[in-house]
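Re: weekly structure request thread

Next one in the queue (710 aa):
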Amino acid sequence: MNHLTKETKLTILYILVAFTFSVLMRMIWVYQFADYEAFKYAGQFMINTNDGYYWAEGARDLLSGVTQENDGSPITTAASQLTAFFTLILPFPFETIILYMPVFLSSLVVVPIILIAKDLKNLDMGLIAALLASIAWSYYNRTMIGYYDTDMLNIVLPMFLLWSIIWAIDTKKDIFLLIVALDILVYRWWYPQSYALEFSFFGLILFYTMIWDRKNPYNYKLLAIMLFAMISVDGFIRFPLVLVAFYMFRQDKFQKYIYHILVVSIVLFLATGGFNPIWNRLKLYVFTDVISASKDGLNLHFYSVMQTVREAGHIPFETFANRISGHTVTFILSVLGYMYLVYRHKIMLLALPLVGLGFLASVGGLRFTIYAVPILALGVAFLITELTGYITDKKSVKLFAYIVLTLAVLYPNIKHIESYKVPTVFNADEVKILDILKSKVDREDYVVSWWDYGYPIRYHSDVKTLIDGGKHGGSVNFPVSFMLTQSSDEAAKMARLDVEFTERAFKIYENNIELNESQKVKVFTNIEEMTEEYGLSDTNDFLLSLQTDIELPQKTRDVYFYLPYRMINIYPTVVKFSNLDLMTGEMKAAPFYFVSRNFKESKERIDLGSGIALNKLEQTLTIGKKKVPIRRVVQTYYDKNNQLQKHVQLADFSASLSVIYMSAYRSFLVVDESTYNSLYVQLMILEEYDKSLFEKVVSNPHAKVYKLKI
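Done, posted below.
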């Protein structure tokens, strides 16, 4: 390294320090749960994000070379492909690789942060910002060990893009034209939704050029090559276009055609879709309705899934500030620091798309906060270095001030990491159930469960699911919600119908691919198709017909129900998707459902919390100021053979509420009669089922699997 300059050596040192710090902080979770076997399977920690099993499924299938038609395996996605590549070249098991990939890939964010600071001649600012950004609340939450998702590079890549743009504009070197374009190509390969952010960078460069550097031809080269990299066509087409543009820009004979090339790039950009992807993303995350109506067929109304996704909801200011900077005070200082940074270095205006997208979290949900993290970290770091430099010139005093102030902004984030003890998606006993199930099913069989569990089920049992983390719109959620929350008889019929109609829809879609637009057959939702199939025009009439002995489609594959105990926590959410009139969109009254785990028992009563108490002597419930009779009291427990046992005591048959005490879980459940008779309660909690409809396949207290027999 003797040939390297002192500045370059310091840059490398700072990158290594920040990267190591980021990795070590993410290892705290491993230390905390080192002896907790419930989070491990086959000797390895499991991942802690549901979506991770989607990418893991794709990587697994790429490595095995085995996939099947319509299984939804993401073998063409970047995350799966990169994971498979790492598995091939690294001497570690697959489960180890997917566990640790977020740790090392996300920590790369320190590199562009420090390189940007190098361009601004303030490496100390870069180190402080890199330390903070790498562990800030929201960035850590979505890139911690086991959080195997695209977020592990979703900030790294745009930060590299920002760095390359800044260096391109500041240095005017031709090589950065290519680097910027390649950054865009890689970013789009990794995250296809990057389109809006890429376009925002383009817009800022255009603004920067028009205001401050209008006569510089280099900027127009940069704008043109960015558009060639951004057009909405396959990357294998965009890459050659970028190379051709780069070659032409380096040749003197083509310099007079720079503006012509820019016009060509604009035409191609508009001709291939232009602003459509941007508008579609805004509609998905910002303009969301509770009830959405289908535009064809019966004009049915469905409950919108975006209303139940926490990451897409509105968040309080304090939460917003904490997630970006770790503390409200730090956040305010970061914003002021960034404004001062822009004042001193106007090139940092180019970071506004990341700040703006981060601030979109105030209306679009907490998932966006991570985008503002590195830029505002640069803001507070700039403030620290500037104020310290203003106060003293002594290196020792300045170093002490840097350390104290850096620790001050890091401290709340480190405390958050210590307290952020996220569990794995499934525990070991739940995975055992799915592994046993894998040996009993065919890859064409379906497992019915709520969409939260779709990806893990597909990964561990290698089956198909009706809904999952990517397929959970209101129209597909309705039938599954109906199955889980209605009577077993109706649920069984709906399960057979929905599976067979789903397979039928695949075939219709495949046949339509070969037809031109005038010939294409409209494919409605499964519920619409079912209603029409049975000669009805009102979906409510079709749903009522499930209570009768209707003729079902011919069975083409087996169907299983996976019912985890953990679903008890989200049952009210599951209900919402089928608890509405599909014809009008009117929501029905919510069923009574109450879970209590923190109860207090005395001689005469059990206080369940939230103003609800059970009178043991009278066998009545007190709800607020009302005394309500109980229909039945049920106690369940598991014997020494892990078999469910129950004791049912009828109290008042005219009453509507029942109390279930699940002693194995030390939990009370208070439900109305419709919920008591739902498939989930009957099969999972009580193991009461019609043996002509269902067969119990495998179970333990954590989860149960039943096979549909019709």
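The domain at 428-565 is CATH 3.40.1380.40 (Pyruvate Kinase; Chain: A, domain 1). The chain is about 50% helix and 10% strand.
Next request, please.
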